[in-house]
Amino acid sequence: MIGYITLGTNDFDRAVNFYDELMSHLGEKRLWATDSMAAWGSSRDVPALCIAKPFNEGDATISNGGMVALKVSSKEQVDSAHAKAISLGGLNEGDPGARGNGGFYGGYFRDLDGNKLNVYIPATSA
């Protein structure tokens, strides 16, 4: 059902650099970019993560309660991706660990524009 998710940015070049490094670290690639939008994923046939300058040319703002969750394949990948995001200037929003009575294993962070993301594995993979 989900084709792609878009996060707003107020500093497009900085955000592209952040996501180029983070997504590469997760084994994903930049699928395409224009002067105001870029997308990462494994192919155009599966959901992608995008960033964009707001179309209305206003400020990009973060969602209160909104979050993008990036599914990975191991606890080590959760730990590594969380650490990578922090090393790139992201803010820690929750160290990697078990969540929801063992419902899954995840780590939370905010990107350079304040958007909240989670890198996780489902409980069946933990």
Protein model, in words:
The chain is α/β, with parallel strands linked by helices. It has one domain: 2,3-Dihydroxybiphenyl 1,2-Dioxygenase, domain 1. The chain has two helices and eight strands. The strands form two sheets. Strands 1-4-3-2 form a four-stranded mixed beta sheet, with helices on one face. Helix 1 runs antiparallel to helix 2. The two termini are 25 Å apart.
CATH architecture field? Roll
| Radius of gyration computed on alpha carbons | 14 Å
Biggest beta sheet attributes:
4 strands, mixed
Q: What structural category arises from helix and sheet content?
A: alpha/beta
Helix tally? Answer: 2
CATH topology name, in short, is 2,3-Dihydroxybiphenyl 1,2-Dioxygenase, domain 1
Q: N-to-C SSE series?
A: EHEEEEHEEE
Low-pLDDT runs of 5+ residues are none
Strand proportion, as a percent range, falls in 35-45%
Number of domains: 1
In helices, the fraction of residues equals 10-25%
* Ends distance: 25 Å
Q: For the largest beta sheet, what order do the strands appear in spatially?
A: 1-4-3-2
Beta-strand segment tally: 8
Average per-residue pLDDT, rounded, comes to 94
**Main CATH class:** Alpha Beta
Question: Notable features of this structure?
Answer:
single chain; 126 residues; alpha/beta; 2,3-Dihydroxybiphenyl 1,2-Dioxygenase, domain 1; four-stranded mixed sheet; 8 strands; 21% helix
Short description:
The protein is α/β, with parallel strands linked by helices and 126 residues long. The chain has helices at residues 12-25, 75-87, and strands spanning 4-8, 29-33, 37-41, 48-52, 68-71, 91-99, 104-110, 116-122. The two termini are 25 Å apart.
